[in-house]
Design goal:
With 453 residues, the chain is of the alpha/beta class. The protein contains 18 helices and 15 strands. The protein has helices at residues 43-46, 52-58, 70-76, 88-94, 115-127, 141-152, 163-168, 170-178, 192-200, 208-221, 234-254, 269-285, 301-304, 347-354, 365-379, 385-404, 422-429, 440-447; strands at residues 6-7, 17-19, 65-67, 84-86, 99-104, 132-137, 156-162, 182-186, 225-227, 260-264, 290-296, 306-311, 320-325, 359-363, 409-414. The chain has a seven-stranded mixed beta sheet, with helices on both faces. A four-stranded parallel beta sheet has the order 8-7-6-9, sandwiched between helices. The longest helix has 21 residues, at 234-254. The protein starts with 5 loop residues before the first strand and ends in a 6-residue tail after the last helix. The protein binds pyridoxal-5'-phosphate (PLP).
């Protein structure tokens, strides 16, 4: 029989509900805290910042399934279902008995999984009478997804992009403007926070911290304007569960069930999106799939961070979140996988690590690009530098299978393509990239600045 390469769902087979793992967790995530009072937050406390529905979803530990609104499903159909693909050529190159599958989230107008959450976030804003959305973006994947989704649902988007990234990586800001968003380099003169920073340091290159401050200020001082976030938060992982729910059906078409599930890890949304629907069978049905989150060795919150209440942002504007963290003012090395340079993990994933349901692995930068190059040359897709970490972790497992003679089924998430990150590949090919080592003393210094609760 001819070997089947791709497993494709019809439009009417796209799941119509998201999966909320919080309902099935034995130990629920601890609540976020108000930093001033240290009291647990209620959904209403978040209303000034986010769409109300997102606030409810954030703290929902009750409903296992949440309906995907019809207009969001309609827009999902523009690019979903995404294919599940068997990586035969990669298997051959590794000479492994393992069966390697990947979920291809790079095939959509924006090139990464982030649009899966940008669409519902903009939809809920529209439904609630919001007219404007804002956010911050580093490399620009989230900003691009949000700009598209805002246009789809008739909202104005203002994206604060780290000034230096805007100058060095202009293509994603061009995408954002193509979709009609206003892109502002941060720090900017458009907010008080930005003006203060520029007054102190006229040549400030910007950081995610400056961009978050500006976006939150805009959202809280502009009528009918909400802030949105593309990772870390529980409602973002909820929306991303569409990835794993589709993959579950597609693995069934392939007649296999994954022994190991792998995704790269920045704030946890593409990992949770693929992993949680499968993890529900570990929680409820006695399956024992292994879950591996691949983080950069230079930003190792899962393996070397501490479980603490910490701020979600550098500047300390957000609620305190219970999570594995390297400290909110940790400054990760300037690796090319910009989407993985985040100091903390989401609260769900952090609880799952504490409970032994999953674990992290650290991938050095050069190993990630070695893996990305092999994947490009075998499977023909140039992966995002972030996704390269998942591929590297997959290759480690596949080699382990070869050594042990084990025919494991491995499923990983291809969270995005790298076609707008070609300068990173260029640097790698020219031999200009290197690994970063991170001393324990640096981690300890940053953790000392985490507030006590
Ligand atoms: C943003 C991004 C990530 C990291 O974010 P998560 O929330 O951890 O998924 C990974 N891959 C790509 C392609 C991204 O754009």
């Amino acid at each position: 029989m001819a070997k089947q390469k791709k497993f494709i769902l019809q439009e009417n087979e796209i799941p119509t509900q998201w999966y909320n793992i919080q309902a099935d967790m034995k130990n629920k995530p601890l609540p976020p805290l108000n930093p001033a009072t240290k009291e647990p937050l209620k959904a209403e406390d978040l209303y000034p910042i986010f769409a109300q529905e997102c606030c409810s979803q954030e703290l929902d530990q009750e409903h296992q399934w949440i309906d995907i609104p019809e207009p969001v499903l309609d827009k999902y159909k523009y690019y979903r279902a995404t294919p599940l693909v068997r990586a035969y050529e990669l298997e051959k190159a590794l000479d492994t008995p393992a069966h390697i599958y990947f979920k291809n989230e790079s095939v959509n107008p924006l090139g990464s999984h982030k649009v899966n959450s940008a669409l519902p976030q903009c939809y809920y804003c529209k439904e609630e009478g919001v007219t404007n959305v804002t956010t911050e973006t580093g490399a620009g994947q989230w900003g691009a997804a949000l700009s598209y989704a805002a246009k789809v649902f008739g909202l104005e988007a203002a994206v604060y992009q780290v000034k230096l990234s805007l100058q060095q990586k202009p293509y994603r800001s061009m995408m954002m403007r193509t979709f009609g968003a206003a892109v502002v380099g941060s720090p900017s003169m458009s907010t008080r926070a930005g003006k203060n920073i520029i007054t102190r340091d006229p040549n400030h290159p910007g950081s995610l911290g400056t961009a978050i401050s500006e976006a939150i200020e805009l959202a809280t001082t502009t009528p009918n304007c909400k802030y949105t976030l593309g990772s870390v938060l529980n409602h973002v992982s909820l929306h991303q569960s569409i990835i794993g729910l589709e993959a579950e059906k597609q693995m069934e078409m392939a007649g296999e069930y994954p022994d190991t599930i792998i995704a790269c890890f920045g704030g946890g949304s593409n990992f949770g999106g693929l992993a949680f629907p499968f993890m529900r069978h570990n929680l409820l049905d006695g399956k024992d799939t292994e879950f591996i989150a691949a983080e950069p060795a230079s930003c190792p919150k899962l393996t070397r961070g501490e479980f603490r209440y910490d701020f979600g942002d550098e500047a300390g504007y957000t609620p305190l979140l219970p999570m594995y963290t390297l400290g909110h003012d940790f400054k990760p090395a300037n690796i090319h996988a910009g989407g993985l340079r985040y100091h903390g993990a989401g609260t769900i994933v952090s609880q799952l690590i504490k409970d032994g349901m999953m674990h992290g692995v650290d991938i050095p930068q050069l190993e990630s690009f070695d893996a990305g190059m092999l994947f490009a040359r075998t499977e023909g897709i140039i992966p995002a530098p972030e996704s390269c970490h998942a591929i590297a972790a997959t290759i480690r497992e596949a080699i382990r299978c070869k050594e042990a003679g084990e025919e494991k089924v491995i499923l990983f998430n291809l969270s995005g393509h790298g076609l707008i990150d070609m300068t990173a590949y260029d640097s790698y090919i020219n031999g200009d990239l290197h690994n970063y080592t991170l001393e324990d003393s640096v981690i300890q210094e940053n953790l000392a600045n985490v507030p006590e609760v």
